[in-house]
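Field log, afternoon session.

UNIT: design team B
ACTIVITY: writing a sequence onto a fixed backbone
BACKBONE:
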């Protein structure tokens, strides 16, 4: 069934697991992600970035909503990295049940002001809001909302931010990069920092990036306070690596229904690993 981000994440928070937010940007990938969530009985957040919405067209959102209503697992449709108040209103109009407002690159007070404005409006109509504090790294042209260096989230700032904005969940910077992890840095999550933030704010926390961080650190993060983990790069790499293999150099290979199923299967294998790693498998029964 279709539900809000808050409804999904509050249960994850209570039961100490993380819900995967898979970014999709075409119908085949979306179908595959819903299928694997249903097969593993896991709650799902469908993440769609504004660039991805531009790519698929707003009409497809209606189809995503329709499929979510008919699903056996709870699904939230989440606007990933909303940049402005106006853009978030657009997401609400399209039928998203959860939005992110990312003003993390702006000064602290400005981040609070814009996030509060979004939260005040979104909550009137029951849409959930994710804010971001700190700066998650990003190191290639596709890595949205990131910077060359990580600025770790300050726990006391997080308390102020959550209290003053009323956000339902908070993306924190604890050692992840958007996209591929830079070769010159050792991927390492600051789990002590995560514990400290969680002890002070309690609300569901969100991890962006994380491709390249070791599985045992991710598993531990999901156990001690992270309740939503965004997955984009890993499933897209699996999908398109398989597509290159299927296409080969044979020009006669051209029908999408002959090309895409193997790519979807390859993507589903990676998605299933994430669902398992985050502790989300079987958790749809809690809703
Ligand atoms: Zn992100």
């Amino acid at each position: 069934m279709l539900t809000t981000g808050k409804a999904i994440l509050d249960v994850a928070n209570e039961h100490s697991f993380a819900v995967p937010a898979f970014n999709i940007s075409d119908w085949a990938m979306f179908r595959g992600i819903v299928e694997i969530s249903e097969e593993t009985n896991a709650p799902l957040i469908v993440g769609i970035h504004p660039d991805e919405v531009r790519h698929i067209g707003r009409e497809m959102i209606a189809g995503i909503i329709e499929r979510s209503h008919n699903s056996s697992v709870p699904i939230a449709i989440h606007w990933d990295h909303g940049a402005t108040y106006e853009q978030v209103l657009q997401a609400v109009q399209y039928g998203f049940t959860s939005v992110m407002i990312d003003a993390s690159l702006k000064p602290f007070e400005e981040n609070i002001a814009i996030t509060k404005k979004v939260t005040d409006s979104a909550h009137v109509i029951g849409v959930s809001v994710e804010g971001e504090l700190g700066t998650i790294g990003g190191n290639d042209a596709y890595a949205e909302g990131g910077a060359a260096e990580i600025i770790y989230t300050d726990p006391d700032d997080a308390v102020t931010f959550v209290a003053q904005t009323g956000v339902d969940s908070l993306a924190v910077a604890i050692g992840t990069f958007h996209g591929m992890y830079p070769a010159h840095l050792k991927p390492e999550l600051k789990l002590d920092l995560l514990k400290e933030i969680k002890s002070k704010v309690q609300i569901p926390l969100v991890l962006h990036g994380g491709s390249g961080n070791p599985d045992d650190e991710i598993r531990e993060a999901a156990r001690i306070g992270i309740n939503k983990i965004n997955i984009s790069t890993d499933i897209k790499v699996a999908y398109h690596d398989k597509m290159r293999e299927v296409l080969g150099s044979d020009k006669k290979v051209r029908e999408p229904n002959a090309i895409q199923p193997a790519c979807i299967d390859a993507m589903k294998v990676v998605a299933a690993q994430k669902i398992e790693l985050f502790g989300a498998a079987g958790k749809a029964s809690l809703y």
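LOG NOTE: The chain has a mean pLDDT of 94.
NEXT ACTIVITY: expression trials, pending approval
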